[in-house]
Amino acid sequence: IERKRIREILKGIQDIERLTARIFLGQANARDLIGLKKSLQHLPELRLALQPFMSLLLSQVTSEIDEFQDLVQLLESSIVEDPPLTLKEGGIIKPHYHQELDELRQMSKEGKGWILKLEAEERKRTGISSLKIRYNQVFGYYIEVTKSNLPLVPANYARKQTLVNAERFITPELKEFETKVLGAEEAIGQLEYRLFEEIREKISGVTSRLQRTASLVALLDSLG
């Protein structure tokens, strides 16, 4: 019964040695780190399951298995549970892990509300009910006005693009917002990647500890 329990626990532990090697070589992505965290979370349970065994070998294994509470806490507080495969587009680091990142995210989030507010204000100010503020990667943010409403366009609107049925404009206020928000989104991606690299480097710093426990787990697997 005890051996069966240990085998069940071992099923939840990935190849720690392989994950450690990928981390040490700088090849691990965020999902590798989550795989490592979930594997390490089984170690306290594994040590507990080994306690009934009285052999000298298993007693030594039990005493030498490292539970890595420090790494589990680090990974639990920093990496989201289901991270993307890519590392440079954001979406990896949890909220409340890093103050500057939280501030940049709040700025980006508030930006969407700011756009809706500005759109409503401009519709009221110009009397153009169909006025829209949109964004695309080529032209950035713009105000779109149908050609039938062009006589209502204020003097501070600078023409940005001409379409068949509409004109697109930019204002100094919208341009300033674009610089601020797009800069924040780019900074988020860069900062998340830097934080991820720092976390990966911290784990790499305990490679020998991870390798030792990986060898002990492999030994138990072979004995099971």
Primary descriptors:
224 residues; alpha+beta; four-stranded antiparallel β-sheet; 9 helices
Q: Could you please describe the fold and organization of this structure?
A:
The protein is an alpha+beta fold and 224 residues long. It has 9 helices and 4 strands. Strands 1-2-4-3 form a 4-stranded antiparallel sheet. Strand 3 and strand 4 (166-170) form a beta hairpin. Helix 2 (16-24) crosses helix 3, helix 3 (30-40) packs across helix 6 and helix 7 packs antiparallel against helix 8 (172-204).
Largest beta-sheet details: 4 strands, antiparallel
Average pLDDT confidence is: 94
Shape: rod-shaped
Give unreliable regions as ranges: none
Q: How would you classify the helix and strand content by structural class?
A: alpha+beta
Strand content: 5-15%
Percentage of residues assigned to helices = 55-70%
Radius of gyration: 27 Å
Query: What strand line-up does the widest sheet have?
Result: 1-2-4-3
What is the total tally of β strands?
4
**H/E topology pattern:** HHHHHHHEEEEHH
Figure out the total of helices.
9
Topology:
Blueprint lengths: L1 H10 L4 H9 L5 H11 L2 H8 L5 H9 L4 H10 L20 H28 L5 E5 L3 E7 L11 E5 L3 E5 L1 H33 L2 H17 L1
Antiparallel strand pairs: 1-2, 2-4, 3-4
Gist of the model:
The protein is built from 9 helices and 4 strands, in the order H-H-H-H-H-H-H-E-E-E-E-H-H. It has helices spanning 2-11, 16-24, 30-40, 43-50, 56-64, 69-78, 99-126, 172-204, 207-223, and strands at residues 132-136, 140-146, 158-162, 166-170.
